[in-house]
Each structure stands twice: as C-alpha cells, then as structure tokens.
Amino acid sequence: MTLTQERRVILFKPQGRIDLQGGMALSEKMVKVVPQSNQLWIIDLAAVDFMDSCGLVPLVKGLKAARQSGCRLVICNVQAPVRLILELTQLDSVFEIFNTYEEILSLVNHDTVILG
C-alpha cells in the first residue's frame, strides 16, 4: 500500500448487506485506517444492496472521525434502497453523495489506496 506525501484517497468498497454484521465489518476496516489531514475517504456503495440503521453507524462514525482529523468523507454509487435509508434519516443532507466514483475523481486528482 503506497501513499504519496501530498494528498491521499482511501477507498472503501463494502459489499452485500450493511446490517449489524456488515456494519461491524465496515467499522473494523475503517478503524484500521488512521485519518490524516487532507485525506479523502470514499465509500463506494455500488455493491451494497441493503442497509439498515445498524449500517448507518459506521458511516456516521467514519464521518465524525474524518472531520475531526481534517479529512473529507464522501459516498458514491448509492443504490436506490440505500439512498432511501439515507433520505428517511435525512443523512443525505449530511454526507457528500456523488453518483459515481469517476465523478469524484474528476473533481479531485489523488493517488488511491483501495481497502476491500
């Protein structure tokens, strides 16, 4: 895993269901990454077809950790069932949500580290 000294991108790509079990798995991956100032954390939800309230916990914790460390956390590729949960909880107004990963990269030029 190589990070440049300038700006860094950390990409999380959870899969399947983000419920209690999936949320804990995502939390474990996110906790292993020490947020550093000016990092960009991307959570790509393209392969996530279900999320419940337990799945929101790692997203909110990640956002809090990122903000406290001077990082930016964004979400992309949100499927309709997951978008509905974000809208019902009004978290769609809290998170920066992009349609695609490519859309994010077109706005920022970074080196990327992919974390499952």
TrEMBL record:
<comment type="similarity">
    <text>Belongs to the anti-sigma-factor antagonist family.</text>
</comment>
<dbReference type="Pfam" id="PF01740">
    <property type="entry name" value="STAS"/>
</dbReference>
<dbReference type="InterPro" id="IPR036513">
    <property type="entry name" value="STAS_dom_sf"/>
</dbReference>
<feature type="domain" description="STAS">
    <location>
        <begin position="1"/>
        <end position="108"/>
    </location>
</feature>
<protein>
    <recommendedName>
        <fullName>Anti-sigma factor antagonist</fullName>
    </recommendedName>
</protein>
<dbReference type="GO" id="GO:0043856">
    <property type="term" value="F:anti-sigma factor antagonist activity"/>
</dbReference>
<dbReference type="InterPro" id="IPR002645">
    <property type="entry name" value="STAS_dom"/>
</dbReference>
<dbReference type="InterPro" id="IPR003658">
    <property type="entry name" value="Anti-sigma_ant"/>
</dbReference>
